[in-house]
Amino acid sequence: MYNKHVYLFLFKFNKNKFWAFSQMGKKNKLQNIKGLIFYKFMGTGGKRGFSLMPDFSTYALLTIWKNKNSIELFLNENKIFKSYKIQSKQIRVLILNTFQSHGNWGGINPFILNKNDELNSDKKIKIYYNKKIAIITRAKVNWSKLFSFWKTVPDSSKSIANAQGVYFYKGIGEIPFIEQATISLWNNLDDVLKFAYKSKAHSKIVKKSREEKWYKEELFSRFYLKKDYLLQK
Fold first, then answer.
1. Are strands 179-186 and 54-65 parallel, antiparallel or unpaired?
2. Are 220 and 168 in contact (CB under 8 A)?
3. Phi, psi of 173 (to 5 degrees)
4. Claim: this prediction has a pTM higher than 0.85
5. Does residue 230 register a pLDDT over 60?
């Protein structure tokens, strides 16, 4: 069984950028929030979204919740979230329902409740073919492979920029250069599968990452995009 209450927040700042950056040093501030199973505060990449240079105007918060009541309480009453409402210009909310996930993030896979779900194949998820899809990838890069990894980032950025059906993508990460993730949004699952299995540029990068053992840990997850909206302040 998969976690169905995944919320990704993208905070946009025109002003108060120093405040936003300073909050990254307070990553444990959401501990002991009722109903919150998992969370990560992350910075984002500049330029096209994948870059050594950070985007100091955009930050991300990934959260997973036990139930809808907990997330509603957080959105309406949590003091920390209220401060982000006040300081940011815009908050984009992506509500995601997991339907495939494999790998680990900090030693666990937070998107699944039953390890057997990792065995699900593409043939079992035809129900999602005509729905908008979100993809989250995450990797912890080996120190010795940092140069090789970042050398391919421009090619990776170019390949997804040219992919059919992708309409948003952004590099996100916990620790600069080492712990990296991406979020991308797609028109449908068919476009995702074409990119994953038929893109020569993408396949080349994936093959190289396996051969050279870039990652200490990695995770790949697919979601049905239940809702994508701007939070009213």
1. unpaired
2. no
3. -170, 150
4. yes
5. yes
Paired with 224 in beta bridges are 97, 133
Q: Is 103 left (phi over 0), alpha (psi -120 to 50) or beta?
A: left
Per-residue model confidence as pLDDT tens digits over 135-158? 999 988 776 666 566 566 656 777
Q: Which two tokens stand for residue 3?
A: 């976690």
* Residue 38, strand partner residues: 64
Amino acid at site 75:
L
CA pair distance 35, 70, nearest whole angstrom: 5
DSSP structure class, residue 222: E
**Highest mean predicted confidence (pLDDT) among 42-56, 66-80, 212-226:** 66-80
Task: Find out whether 110 and 7 touch, Cβ atoms under 8 Å.
Answer: no
117: CB partners within 8 A, 6+ apart: 1, 2, 100, 101
59 contacts 44 by C-beta, under 8 angstroms: yes
